[in-house]
Automatic annotation (TrEMBL):
Keywords: Signal. Residues 1-23 form the signal peptide. This is Esterase. It comes from the Eukaryota. Pfam families: Esterase. One of its GO terms (molecular function) is acyltransferase activity, transferring groups other than amino-acyl groups. InterPro entries: AB_hydrolase_fold (IPR029058), Esterase-like (IPR000801), Mycobacterial_A85_antigen (IPR050583). SUPFAM superfamilies: alpha/beta-Hydrolases.
Length: 323
């Protein structure tokens, strides 16, 4: 009698330990150049991790959305990862609502890093007093391997996608070009794709910065000769051929100044990709009616969310669905 009671208790304790070990709630640890300052679980699926890196000034927030059954699906179940890049004036919190609403129960991990209000997803040419501003190294060489280390991901090109809006739309295509071995799918929503377009340059240079001067930090001065010109070197059109083995989606509209300014560059990149035989899904949704979901054809969340709703099944059809 005593013994069987003891064994029941022991079995119960073992079950608890096994259950604890296999439930695998993410525990974010430092590595790959990132030091974890804090890690907070905001809801069953949403995590917020603050890290520091020698590549960018200040602490950086990363929001991570895991599938609802991430912690119960077993130690061997791996998920594809979508990196979501925010626009200017925004931060790591920007994508949260749209990601939760659109991704829903799709079997996908979403990683939403801070990219600075004007970081432009590049290693800055002129960081000045804000040094270091090496956003590209932080995101592509530290964050990506750190995510694969801390979460059960499909840790290879076939398991990763990247998308972004406006400044982040540029970032998604730019990163896909420079790290084509990292991504199988890249999508831009209202992205500033053609940095050599004088109207696009004008728009970027006149984003209000802290010191009210033109924003020359990321790409330098547009008047520089081509050999040292950051706008030329970082232009998505210049490097389009590097998208050779990636699926590309470009969404843009034309019902306000910003999207109308980005539209010609969007067409230029599309035309070049078609010429290069690179798979591209292109949607100029004009005043927004054709894409629906309340989109008014402007540079706003209704349209980015509508674009995200449209692209997600296309992306999932290409991504490797776990293993
Ligand atoms: C970054 O976080 C660490 C640890 O929480 C803190 O000591 C430090 O002051 C923070 N740095 C900045 C620039 O906020
Ligand atoms: C996780 O949940 C999704 C959607 O609810 C379901 O399709 C999938 O089979 C589940 N995966 C596991 C491993 O339980
Ligand atoms: C996800 O699935 C759960 C049940 O598995 C359901 O309660 C929940 O409403 C679903 N969420 C979404 C956004 O579809």
């Amino acid at each position: 009698m005593r013994y069987s009671f003891f064994f029941i208790k022991l079995a119960f304790a073992l079950c608890n330990i096994i259950n604890y070990c296999t439930s695998d709630i993410p525990n974010f640890v430092s590595g790959f150049g990132l030091t974890v300052c804090s890690s907070t679980q905001l809801s069953n699926e949403l995590f917020e991790v603050v890290v520091s890196s020698n590549e960018v000034l200040g602490n950086q927030t990363i929001r991570i959305l895991v599938p609802q059954n991430y912690s119960t699906s077993g130690n061997n179940h791996r998920y594809s990862v979508l990196y979501l890049l925010h626009g200017a004036y925004a931060d790591a919190t920007a994508w949260t609502g749209a990601a939760q609403d659109v991704i829903g129960n799709t079997s996908l991990i979403a990683v939403m890093p801070n990219g600075g209000p004007f970081g432009f997803y590049t290693n800055w040419m002129i960081p000045g007093s804000l040094a270091p501003q090496n956003w590209r190294i932080f995101h592509m060489e530290q964050l990506v391997p750190w995510i694969d280390f801390n979460l059960r991901t499909v840790a290879k090109k076939q398991g990763r996608a990247i998308a972004g809006l406006s400044m982040g739309g540029y970032g998604a295509i730019h990163y896909a070009e420079l790290y084509s071995y990292n991504f199988i799918y890249a999508a831009s929503f209202s992205g500033a794709l053609d940095l050599l377009d004088p109207q696009v340059q004008n728009l970027i240079l006149h984003l209000t910065t802290i010191d009210d001067k033109p924003l020359v930090g990321p790409f330098g001065y547009p008047s520089e000769p081509l050999s040292s010109n950051g706008w030329f070197a970082q232009d998505t059109i210049t490097r389009a051929a590097q998208l050779r083995d990636i699926h590309i989606a470009l969404y843009n509209c034309n019902n306000d100044y910003t999207d109308s300014t980005f539209l010609p560059g969007c067409y230029r990149l599309r035309d070049l990709l078609v010429l290069l035989n690179i798979p591209v899904y292109f949607d100029d949704y004009g005043d927004g009616q054709s894409i629906g979901h309340g989109c008014d054809g402007k540079h706003d969340w209704a349209c980015w969310k509508a674009s995200f709703i449209d692209v997600l099944p296309r992306m999932m059809a290409v991504l490797q669905q776990g293993y």
